[in-house]
Structures are given as C-alpha cells and as structure tokens.
Design goal:
The chain is 45% helix and 18% strand. By secondary structure, the protein is α+β, with helices and mostly antiparallel strands.
C-alpha cells in the first residue's frame, strides 16, 4: 500500500473525539503535533483542496503517516500537545518567526559593576536584571540615560582590566573611568545603588538624596561637586516628569497585554509590556503556523504558549488578552508550573488595564493593516518575477536564497545567506559564514567555500541569487556541478550596471542571455531588495568581527580622526550606534569634520 492509500485509510478511521495528532514523515520523524476537539474534522481539514497556505501545502506533501492519542477533553489534549512539542520540537510547530528573547538591563556583581543590555536572564553572569524591554531601542535608550545620569562603565572585563587611559565614554561624560582609578570604589558603589533605586522606580528618594548632597557640597565650598549634583538633579527631575506622564497604575502593576487580529490569511499579535505601572513598549508578531484554528481565541492560546516558551523568560502577575480564552485556567496552570510562579489571565478589565488593552488592540490592527499592504506589494513583485523568469525556468519560485561576501581589503571576510519566500524575509533562516583558509581578497574562493558549506548540507531553494557578475555566477555553477545539483535550481547573478547605480542592475544566467530590466520593474525591485538585505547582513557580521579582532573602536582606525574629533563626533550624535545611522552630510556638519573627512568616516563605518 502506498502512502496516499494509507493516508486515505487513516482519515476514514479517525474518531470524532478530542485528542492529539502527530504527522509523521518518510523516516517516521514527527513533522507536526496538534490538538483537536474532533480529531476527524481537524485532521481531515488539512487535506481539503481549498487549502492554499504554502506552508500547510508543504507539510501535507511530506506526510506519510498520522498517529493519534485520544484524550478525555480538549484541556487534557492541550497539556499533552505542549509536552510533545517541547520533547520533539517538530519543524512545522514553529509559530514565532522572530523568537529572540526580550532584552534586559544588567548590572554585574564585579568590584566595579558594569551595566549592559542583553537578551534573557540566563545569558549573563550573576547580577541584577531590570526589564524586560520589548525593543532594542527602548533598552538602549534606558542604558544611555543611566550612563548620563550615573556614569557607570559598560566595557567588558577584559577591556576594563587592560585599560591604560580613559576611554571615549569618559571623555563625553558617560563613564567615571574606574578602570584608571578616576573614581573611588565607594563613590562608584554609591552610583550603582542610585542606579538600582532609579530602575526600581524610587526616583523621589534619589532626588532627595541628590538635593541634600548638592547643599552639603555648596556649604563646604566644593562648588564643582555641587554643580555635578545640580546637573544630575535637573536631569533626573526632567526624566521623572516625563515618566509620570507615561505611568498608568501603581508600582505593583506588572502585566503583559496581548491583542490579536486576523484578516486575509494573516494574523497579527501585539504584545504590550507593563512593569511598575510604566508601559515599557510593545512589539508586533505575525505567527507563522500551519494550525488551522477556527477562532481568534484558539490562535491566541497557541501564541501565548509559544511566546512564554520561546521569547519571554519572565511571567508577569497578570496576562491581559483581547479575546476570552476557553482554556485560560489550563494555560495559566501550564505557565505557572514552567516558571514556578502564579499568573492570572484576564480579558474583561477596567480603568487603566482597559487603556492598556485598547492600546494593544489599536497597535495590532495597525500592524496587520501595514503587513497586508506590504504582503500585497510582495505578491505583486513575486508574480512579476515569475513572469520574467518564465522565459528561462519552467518551475514555480517560492523560496529564494541570496549570498554576498563582505570584507575590508581582504580582512575578516564574512559570507551571508538571506532567505525570502512569498511571506517576506525568513529571518530565522538567515546564516553567516566566517571565511577560513582563503587568501584575503579572493571573492571567488570565499563564495565557493560558502556555497559548498551551505549546499552540501541543506537543500537548494527554487531561486539562488548571487551578488556579483559573471565570475561569481560561474563559481556558483561549478559548485552546483560538483554537488550534482546544477539542474535543481535557477541560478542568477545580480551585477551592478553602468556607474554602479541602483536600478541599472543586469541579471546574468548560465545558459541564457542577460536580462536588463527597466528601473521601475517590480521584479527588479524584489531582487534588489533581497540583494541589499544580503549585503546589509554580511556587512553587519563583518564589522562586528573586524572590530572585535582589533579590540578598539572603529573610529580609532580612521586616518586624520584624532581623539578630540572622535569625542566631538560621539558627543554630537550621542553614541556610535547613532553615528552609524547618520548620513555623510550630517557627519560633515559636525564642527571640525568637513566634507572630505566625513566621506572617509562614512565609507569606513559602512565598509565601502
């Protein structure tokens, strides 16, 4: 009996009872685990001809067998489903495409504690954690604020131990330089305690203490110290006034607020984080799951379990949701057992909690509207690309992978692979490759190594894009021939056109004439977007690797950029990350820089 006949027989014999189903692949591996009120109705729905979701179609194409476990109710099925998912981690049970854990501010327990930003509590040494912060911007803004207020160090212990002179952070007034003894341990420890009070919301106590120290310093004629306390007090007063506007609720209000909406096959969830009555920010998620849930509350139940299993490592006292959940007690029990803490799930709320809920709903609807707009545009671009490539390739194109190599004069070469499909960028499938054993500047050798490492282990996409001209294209073709996979993929290189101007790209093929698309063509827009994303991803990895190897600020290697100009640059923009986002013209506007040096700075920072 073949797989198709076997599955037909399995579907006929499914009971109309609650339970859990496991979809198995060719080798008996578990592809997907799901729960159902009716096993017969739910499992049969996957094989309906009306299913058009590409991921569901891909799953169904791989199913060779289905196993079921009958339970006494849906709640019991939910518990069993989650246990099986945790144990087996089936590939098609991935709901969150961006499953990065939340960011926290971290204060270490060193002799001179450092402050940092990191993901998850388990990724740091012993210390104090504050947060979570849903976005990198909100966490980094909080850290920058604390550095300005309390001047704590943010360097790692290796840099701290080997420092011979104050760093740029000290020169722009964001570090008291304990590394070279410019602050006593007791004074530094006092700043650490003040930071902890501030992060715990005890701004009033801190203001009183700073005011007292300012008066004491003035009475003792220590006017420079009095000015220091005065400036910190003024800064703290401004911050506290701003926070009071955004604070809704009391200091014990700790909640995560979830709002979900669905339209045209897409689902959006907005997660709002509230700690100590302050809204720390929110983040949008677009669940990527094959489960065909009939209602929003079912989708939200699945999302909650995935969110607290993959993203958040902290369970708040309250979970506020936009939909009434049938299994909220079971979910609360599951989460409580996992975190060793209690939580309450609510959908009907009043006063400030209602304000949080409405804010989350507003953001979820806005995110879905924006995503749908991008989704329709992406579909048009994919269709345009299919039409263009139909002349040279007779198979559908769903998955695209693009490669790029980045280095500076052959130094610290890194290869990148970015992945796109009909729903956009597949960030969790991105990969970076450190180039090893290749002569510096040998782009062909680097590309050969990356492609060989990639496709000797992983299957080919439908379309393989290479950033480069005919030389890079031929290298890629040779690798595919060695792997005996040259006829399994459409291979295209994207070469810069005349003057290397955007919109003048030329597409090269192995056995066909090049295609020169007009600048307003949607297919070209898609290809350029994917190529630019591969370039960005490669440069980011290369810059981190290069700076780590040099063990110094990237600014220190720029010719004619001395200590004073570096300090002025960072003071003007507020930090290296803000400088990286500045244009060449904005850099030139800094006093003492000028157009020529601005061009050198910009090109060095962006690997050009």
């Amino acid at each position: 009996m073949n797989h198709s006949d076997h599955l037909i027989q399995v579907l006929k014999n499914l009971p109309n009872l609650p339970g859990v189903y496991k979809m198995l692949g060719k080798s008996g591996e578990i592809l997907y685990v799901g729960k159902a009120k009716s096993l017969k109705n739910r499992v049969s729905s996957y094989f309906a001809k009306t299913i058009d979701h590409p991921k569901t179609q891909a799953l169904v194409a791989r199913i060779c067998d289905i196993k079921i476990i009958i339970t006494r109710g849906e709640a019991e099925a939910l518990l069993l489903e989650q246990n099986l998912i945790k144990t087996h981690r089936p590939p098609y049970n991935i709901i969150l495409r961006d499953d990065k854990s939340y960011l926290y501010l971290f204060i270490s327990k060193d002799k001179f504690p450092r402050i940092g930003v990191g993901r998850g509590r388990g990724n740091h040494a012993e210390g104090r954690f504050f947060g979570p912060y849903p976005s990198a911007n909100s966490a980094k803004e909080a850290m920058l604020l604390i550095q300005k207020l309390f001047m704590l160090r943010n360097c790692n212990n290796r840099v701290f131990a080997n420092a011979k002179r104050p760093c740029l952070e000290h020169q722009i007034g964001r570090c008291s330089a304990p590394c070279v003894g410019l602050v006593e341990q007791g004074d530094y420890g006092e700043s650490v305690e003040q930071t902890i009070d501030f992060l715990n919301g005890k701004s009033g106590k801190l203001q009183t203490m700073l005011a007292q120290k300012m008066h004491e310093a003035a009475e003792d004629l220590r006017f420079e110290q009095a000015v220091f306390y005065r400036d910190r007090l003024a800064m703290l007063s401004d911050i506290t006034a701003q926070q009071a506007v955004h604070r809704v609720g009391d200091e014990d209000s700790h909640a995560d607020v979830f709002a979900i909406c669905h339209n045209h096959g897409l689902t959006a969830v907005h997660v709002l984080t509230v700690r100590g009555g302050w809204v720390l920010g929110g983040k949008n998620y677009f669940p990527d799951d094959v489960a065909m849930c009939d209602t929003l509350d079912e989708r939200l139940e699945r999302f909650l379990l995935s969110f607290y299993g993959e993203v958040s490592d902290e369970l708040p006292k309250e979970i506020i949701v936009s939909e009434a959940l049938v299994e909220k007690e079971v979910i609360a029990q599951l989460l409580g057992e996992h975190f060793g803490a209690k939580t309450i799930i609510k959908s009907s709320v009043q006063k400030h909690r209602r304000e949080w809920q409405e804010l989350a709903i507003l953001n979820a609807n806005n995110a879905l509207t924006s995503k749908l707009s991008n989704f329709y545009e992406l579909n048009e671009r994919f269709l345009a690309m299919q039409n263009i490539f139909a002349k040279v390739w007779d198979k559908p194109i769903n998955r695209i992978e693009c490669f790029d190599i980045s280095h500076t004069m052959g130094e610290m070469a890194v290869g990148s692979c970015v992945v796109f499909d009909g729903r956009g960028a597949r960030n969790r499938d991105y990969r970076q490759y450190a180039i090893q054993g290749v002569v510096g500047g040998d782009d062909y050798g680097a590309m050969r190594q990356v492609l060989m490492r990639r496709y000797s282990k992983y299957p080919l996409p439908d379309l393989l894009l290479i950033d480069g001209g005919k030389g890079q294209l031929n290298v890629a073709f040779e690798v595919l021939c060695e792997l005996q996979k040259a006829d399994e993929v459409l291979l295209v290189s994207v070469a810069k056109g005349e003057g290397r101007k955007a919109g003048l790209e030329v597409l090269h093929f192995i056995n066909h004439e090049p295609i020169d698309l007009p600048a307003d063509n949607k297919a070209l827009h898609l290809i350029m977007h994917i190529r630019d994303e591969a370039h960005r991803f490669a440069i980011t990895a290369h810059r981190k690797k290069r700076d780590k190897a040099r063990g110094s600020s990237v600014l220190e290697v720029i010719p004619n950029l001395g200590e004073k100009r570096r300090r002025d640059l960072l003071a003007h923009f507020g930090g290296i990350s803000q400088l990286l986002g500045a244009s060449q013209k904005e850099i030139a506007n800094v006093k003492g820089i000028g157009k020529v040096l601005a061009k050198t700075i910009y090109n060095t920072l962006h690997g050009r």
